[in-house]
Amino acid sequence: MKKLLVLLVSLFVLTAVFAAEATPVVSWSGSASFTLGVDEKGLDVSGVLIKPKVSWSPSSDSQFGVSFGIDLIGKSLTLSSISFENSIFALTYANGASAFQYFVGTNNDGNPLMSAEGNIEVTLSGVEGLTLVYQDILRRVDYNTGVLAGEKWFNDFVGVKYSVAGVDLAAAFYDADTVATANTFEYGVNAKTSLDLGIATADLDGVFGMVDGINTTAYGISESIKAEFSIVTLTQTFAWKENVSMFEYAGDSDAKELTVGAEVSYEISPVTLGAKATLKIADLSSPTEFTVPVSVNASFENDMVNADVSAAWDDVVAAAENLTVDANASVTPVDKFTLSTSVKYLTDGNEFGYNAKVSYALDDNTTICAFYGTLYDKDGNGSADINKDDAQWYAKLSWSVSF
């Protein structure tokens, strides 16, 4: 299927190129970086080229564009996307998968949770707000051998999105397995909207569908409200979700929970003070079980100094003695030179962690820095942890550029 689609779209684009008198617009995008570093394990040199692309988009009565990915090391050129538009529709073809309202979510890096060979998105000029999506999950057309024995005809993803009166509607039907000889169909509908209530904003999201190939019902309802009054912000969220964790590519989880919170933030330049308290019922099936996490914070910032301290209790009701204290400070005594330090203390287990870092920017692209401490993100989850028996140190020269 992918080969046929690429062939048809390529022929259309080539025809438009020779038929139109247009001046092509070429643009580059991507980033590159280089690091020379040393730590307790030894020396390391690395270089990375991230998502290099060159886009070609001539301007004519038939708008179209081609985007290529370039591997300078491997000396290869790969097709990233093709798009074109006429008086009836606009079409974009891209390699890989794309996120789709609720039914195809993304990971922390923004990559779709579904693998696909390619995807097509079509909008119709005569129907505003309507988008059709096709994603080629598995099947490839073989022009020589014909249909393989036992291979299913449909192993793909089809979706429709329609926005009307401030409501985003979506429907999807897809094969949830990656076996060519089997089908596990899932399908569903999703609606979401945001309402301005004057004193607050409410976000609503609902989904209903069938999962696991045997029509197990999955549904979810969630809402959140946020209201701001001067220095006070009030929030409330609710979710009731059954079997939504079975949607193969949604990345959602079952939940029956309620939270109500209040946050205060007050600034007396250069000092900012804040506090936050939340009532959480993590399981509405047992509403008597709840937690009340509380946190307070203060920060100071001017042209030379940036510092903050915070204290947090996971639950002031049942575990008020479990306190986490974080403090961070950085000083830039001279231009381009920064000294920073952080400490973290957990009363539970009486654990203490610290680090210190110095950095100097040689220019807009080049930086040298050194680090030492027991407070760093060892598991890569984006949060610094205390590694009390394993102090880390490193020094590195870094260069990076975006284009």
Description:
The chain has about 400 residues and is mainly beta. The protein has a domain at about 95-220. The chain has one helix and 24 strands. Strand 14 and strand 15 (about 270-280) form a beta hairpin.
List keywords for this structure.
single chain, 403 residues, mainly beta, 22-stranded antiparallel β-barrel, two-stranded antiparallel sheet, 1 helix, 4% helix
Order of helices and strands: HEEEEEEEEEEEEEEEEEEEEEEEE
Q: Supply the number of helical segments.
A: 1
Give the CA-based shape. Answer: globular
Number of strands: 24
* CA-based gyration radius: 27 Å
> Which percent band covers the strand fraction?
over 45%
Q: Structural class per helix/strand content?
A: mainly beta
Low-confidence stretches: 1-21
Q: Percentage of helical residues?
A: under 10%
Largest sheet: 22 strands, antiparallel, barrel
Separation of the first and last Cα atoms: 34 Å
Mean pLDDT: 86
Keywords: Signal
Q: SSE layout and pairings?
A:
Blueprint (H helix, E strand, L loop, with lengths): L1 H18 L6 E14 L2 E15 L7 E8 L4 E10 L3 E7 L22 E7 L5 E7 L20 E8 L2 E9 L9 E12 L4 E11 L4 E14 L2 E11 L12 E14 L2 E11 L12 E8 L3 E11 L3 E16 L2 E10 L4 E11 L4 E8 L1 E2 L8 E2 L5 E11 L1
Antiparallel strand pairs: 1-2, 1-24, 2-3, 3-4, 4-5, 5-6, 6-7, 7-8, 8-9, 9-10, 10-11, 11-12, 12-13, 13-14, 14-15, 15-16, 16-17, 17-18, 18-19, 19-20, 20-21, 21-24, 22-23
